[in-house]
Design a protein that fits this description.
By secondary structure, the chain is α/β, with parallel strands linked by helices. It is about 40% helix and about 20% strand. The protein is built from five helices and six strands; from the N terminus they run H-E-E-H-E-E-H-E-E-H-H.
């Protein structure tokens, strides 16, 4: 996409979207975001990690774990992760929510990724 800007005026809708991206909130400390990966990581896998870490800067209480499936087979099997996968996990209740499709579909659009992941986390936690 090509974007142009002829002035500094932004639409009210665009400003609301920006506010949503910058909004900080807190979730239960039992919630973690886990990204599984194989030994050889692709560009998309690296973007998912970078976007996830950027998202978590605005969320208090949530932790992030990067798990190599080749070195942690038991944990990967418990999440049914064979390669790159993204999950929300409640350490206390064991609840899991897979976000792999979301992550791959939005890895190239940082703002959409952040907004979507924040929404998923707020609904999960």
């Amino acid at each position: 996409m090509i974007f142009g800007c002829s002035s500094n005026n932004h639409s009210e809708e665009a400003q609301k979207e920006g506010d949503a991206i910058n909004e900080v909130f807190k979730v239960s400390e039992n919630i973690e975001l886990i990204q599984f990966h194989s030994e050889n990581r692709c560009m998309t896998c690296n973007k998912i990690e970078a976007n996830s870490l950027e998202t978590l800067k605005a969320i208090e209480g949530i932790s992030f774990r990067l798990v190599n499936v080749d070195e942690n087979e038991d944990e990967a099997n418990s999440f049914e992760a064979a390669g790159t996968a993204l999950f929300l996990h409640n350490k206390e209740t064991g609840a899991k929510k897979e976000l792999t499709d979301f992550a791959f579909m939005n890895a190239g659009n940082k703002e959409k990724f952040i907004e979507g992941l924040k929404k998923e986390i707020s609904q999960f936690g």
